[in-house]
Write a structure and sequence with these properties.
α5 (about 165-175) links the parallel β7 and β8. The protein is built from 13 helices and 16 strands. The chain is of the alpha/beta class. α11 packs across α12. It starts with about 50 loop residues before the first strand and ends with a helix.
Amino acid sequence: MDVRNLPKARPAHLILPRLDVRPGAQSDNPKQFRSDLRSPGPMASELMDRVVWFIPVSYRDYNNMPASVWIRCQQLIPYLEQRNIRCAVNQSDDEAEIAVFVRWQDEQAYNLARRMKQKGKRIVFDLCVNYFDETGLFDGGYGTTAKQVSEARRMIEMADTVTCASAYIAERAREFHSWVEYLPDSIDHRHFCYRKPVRDFYRPRLRAIWSGTASKARELEPILPLLQRMGMELVIISDRDPGLKSSGWIWERNVQYHFVPWRYELFPTSILEGEVCVVHRKVNDPYNQGHSSFKIGVFMAQGVPAIASPVPSYQELLGNGTGGRLSSSMEDWEAAFNEVVNDRDILARWSHEACQTMEAYRTERIVEQYIRLFNQLS
């Protein structure tokens, strides 16, 4: 598909070129790493505060970096610059007052943070994973290791403040640092700008939809028999086909679903291919408890309701019973699926409620929280 033919063309700063600048490297051109992020706003000479962001990748293609990096760094920068906050990425900017480390905490990051602090910079360490509790690696290669826990705690000791993607992580961080801020993941409505058509909720077969890395798709397997029994289709948006299977006591079989390759520029329209977002997760381990709300929030922002396990951040969005349902047991999941299959009006109502809920998480609103923090640090 030629993305140039899609309706509502994305702003130019959303499709970003590769720039080979190593984290912490000094660029010959101080505007090199930020020139493509400029949004209409004040000229550089009018920009007052300076913030340098350090991330673990040296390129700017959203399709090839961890989602948390563009969620908690890249997509914030145009909005910050509109508010007179000049931003650089992966540059040792001597004029910057504040250095923010996002998804980068190894030995190189620690040494750079220490050098920056010795120069009088204020250090912000951003956490989007619960690196306080070692879980080991789960099937699929994710989880937290002893090394990651040790690295994170050392960065926390170095930091002036710690920012966290979920209230749960923030609660754990306060056990190790006196200044912790909960700054939720945001939804960029310039990019995620579509609205789920109400008529879709009345189609003959409802489509459950899920998005994430293929290694985590197996979390859906406990609810696959329920979807099949309810006659609901399944749409998977992922980096690769996860090859889902449904298992019983003595059998295992492939599951039919529609696979949609994940691409940042196509993600907003891909979201509209389902009527209800489903996120099943085990909530008895600290890794899953630390997840941010983005996984369901990005669907809700475009009017796709969610049925999800009671991860703390999902409770933040769905806990009042609007915009979807929280499901703690298989009985809850079955009841929720029964509800939406037999009462399509509830999906239409949830869709409206979901959009209203997500207004508070618009990027321009979350950026206000960052600005207040930066002002406190300056």
